[in-house]
Amino acid sequence: MIKTENILSDFINRLETDKFFDNVRITRAYSDKIKPTQLKKAVVAVGIKNIEVDDNSLGQDIKTGSYSVFANIYIPHSYDRLSFEQIVFRICRNISELNVVAIEISAVTADSTAECLVMKSVFTFNDEICFKED
């Protein structure tokens, strides 16, 4: 069971504990910190894309459903484009213990403002979902 307030922190913690991500900045999307306009290293910006809940309880107060977490990957133009694949597959490796039901990965696009390349990825999970503290 996943508590809704822990969805992002659990996802981010799984990445931050992997030494592979030591040279990749992991951040919550839309954080209140000012970001540089040009990247010096790869960045993965994480946020909640969607939560869908079903009331499939059988005489119990249990909600089930799916939630989606996006992990947008930004790399400077100087990086090898294979960096996208390495990062996204390493994310998959770190979240494999969760009940992943879908993974969507976009084509690589250019961001002229930040002068970097971007790949958007969305990971969808299915689980019991808890909205209240026990």
Class inferred from helices and paired strands: alpha+beta
Order of helices and strands: EHEEEHEEEE
Level of helix content? 10-25%
Low-confidence spans: pLDDT under 50, at least 5 residues?
A: none
β-strand amount: 35-45%
Q: What spatial form do the alpha-carbon principal axes imply?
A: elongated
Kindly report the average pLDDT value.
88
Strand element count:
8
Largest sheet: 8 strands, mixed
Task: Indicate the radius of gyration in whole angstroms.
Answer: 16 Å
Number of helices: 2
What is the terminal separation in angstroms? 12 Å
Task: Explain what the structure shows.
The longest helix has 14 residues, at about 80-95. It is built from two helices and eight strands; from the N terminus they run E-H-E-E-E-H-E-E-E-E. The protein is an alpha+beta fold. Helix content is about 20%, strand content about 40%. A hairpin with an 8-residue loop joins strand 3 and strand 4 (about 65-75). It has helices spanning about 5-15, 80-95, and strands spanning about 1-5, 25-30, 45-55, 65-75, 100-105, 110, 115-120, 120-130. It starts with a strand and ends with a strand. Strands 1, 2, 3, 4, 5, 6, 7 and 8 form an eight-stranded mixed sheet that branches.
Keywords:
single chain; 134 residues; alpha+beta; elongated
Architecture blueprint of SSEs:
Blueprint: E1 2-3, H1 7-16, E2 25-28, E3 43-54, E4 63-76, H2 82-95, E5 100-105, E6 109-111, E7 116-119, E8 121-130
Parallel strand pairs: 1-8, 2-3
Antiparallel strand pairs: 3-4, 4-7, 4-8, 5-8, 6-7
